[in-house]
Amino acid sequence: MKMDIAQRCYLLLENLSVARGERVVFGGVSLRLGSGEIAEVTGPNGVGKSTLLRAIAGFLPLGSGRISWVESEATDSALLAERIHYVGHLDGLKSALTARENLDIGRGLLGRGRLTPLEALDRMELAHVLDLPVGYLSAGQRRRVALARLLTTDRPLWLLDEPLTALDRHARALLKAVVADHIGSGGLMLAATHEQLGLPGTIQVRLEAR
Amino acid sequence: MTRILLLVFLRDLMLARRIGGGGVLGLVFFLSLVTVVPFAIGPDLRLLSRIGPAILWIAALLATLLGLDRLFQADHEDGSLDQMLLSPAPLELIVLLKCVAHWSVTGLPLALLSPLFGLMLDLDGPALWAVPATLLVGTPTFTFLGAIGAALTVTLRRGGLLLSILVVPLAVPVLIFGVSAAQSGTVPFLTPFLILCALGLASVALAPIAAAAALRGAGE
After folding, report:
1. Alpha-carbon distance B81 to nearest alpha carbon in chain A (angstroms)
2. What's the pTM value of the predicted model, to 2 decimals?
């Protein structure tokens, strides 16, 4: 299961389009994202930023186009689902369980990463909530626990849907540092956002209203 | 992969214990149904003991269906389902384990305590062991059949009623063979019981596939 994150991998989107019912949400999206690169999907509300991320994660069927994953010189798109860590609008945390239990479940499901739950929460400056039920936390703190889950698992491709929502300025800086580390160690990140993270070398993917 | 499945199982048990409700409430609901029937039927003990197994079975079906609407919905609403979809374990097996976890906190205690409730319906010797034996096979069957309904209604806010309407027709064969095995006075026990087991095994094998397909489609 463990993979060497330092090796080159690519996410290739070719002329992607997604339709929901009769309505085409977006069309003609192409992107080549390699190890150590960041892309930000921008565009007005309702243009399909979240839909694009969910389609890449495999939660939605594609209308047309192709998504492929290249790793150790070979295209192996079947592996894609096991390389993705998705953090969406819903944080995937159970209110009744503590932050530690939630993070343990996350790394159990998605594969163990380098950091333990305590270390990851410490990185998000939230170590003091380790044994508190997540239901007691504020929206911003929940968000930070969900982002700490990124660090406890070992997945190269991060798909983040509006990662800055509910975060204060300090927490945004923390997230930025975490993302920079991930990219620095050869990871990939694709974020849907209307407030840019502002890291150097970011590829912009602009979706236009149809 | 075994570790992931064990984790899903333990997680659901932990959530059931932490949130409460589910299991114990199902039992109380079962008890209240069984208590109400003698009042409705009147003081005819012979009639009561004749229809007793049927009452216990219907009560078990309703108690199982009642708690099932949250089986996947809770995970859908907070995004946990997305995390499960990205795990390397197949969704079908995750569904299977979630059903087993759900059954072990709802159906299992219900089946084990059914002889106690049977006493309230004046069940006699053979029926007193036949009812728990058949319920032990029947309740997981209901849970698995119900999982299909739970997966289909996962995006609906108030899917509980629709779930019951979808699942009750599927449960009819189970009910027929379950009750006829439980009323062991009239027909031999083993024949309907074996058919009941077959229905149970078929539901374990097929329902997770159907439910997983419904859950995958729920994203659209």
Report:
1. 8
2. 0.90
Q: Do B88 and A111 touch (CB under 8 A)?
A: yes
- Cβ–Cβ contact A109 with B under 8 A: yes
Candidates A3, A18, A51, A94: best to mutate against B (most CBs of B within 10 A) is A94
Q: Which residues of chain B have pLDDT under 50?
A: none
Specify whether the backbone of A73 is left (phi greater than 0), alpha (psi in -120 to 50) or beta.
left
Contact with chain A for residue B84, Cβ under 8 A:
yes
pLDDT over 70 at A15, yes or no = yes
Quick one: pLDDT at residue A7?
Answer: 67
Examine the predicted complex and report whether its ipTM is higher than 0.95: no
